[in-house]
Design brief:
The structure is a single chain. The protein contains 2 helices and 3 strands. The protein is mostly loops. It has a domain of 41 residues: N-terminal domain of TfIIb (Single Sheet). Strand 2 and strand 3 form a beta hairpin.
Length: 61
């Protein structure tokens, strides 16, 4: 088998990320057993960062 483009076609069916049970996004990593978006599998709290305030809306202090 050769390296490069032809061998990349044989990688189908190996889903690394699947849909998360908690947030519904396609970000749950099968091998790491955690969601990259919400943190499901690693923590009970939702994953968020303060630099991401713009997306979440204004913080209530």
């Amino acid at each position: 088998m050769s390296k490069g483009t032809p061998s990349k076609g044989k990688q189908s069916g190996k889903d690394t990320h699947i849909r998360c049970r908690r947030c519904g996004k396609h970000a749950y990593h099968m091998r790491k057993k955690r969601c990259a978006s919400c943190g499901f599998g690693e923590t009970k709290k939702l994953r968020h960062y303060n630099w991401n305030e713009k997306k979440r809306g204004k913080r209530l202090d």
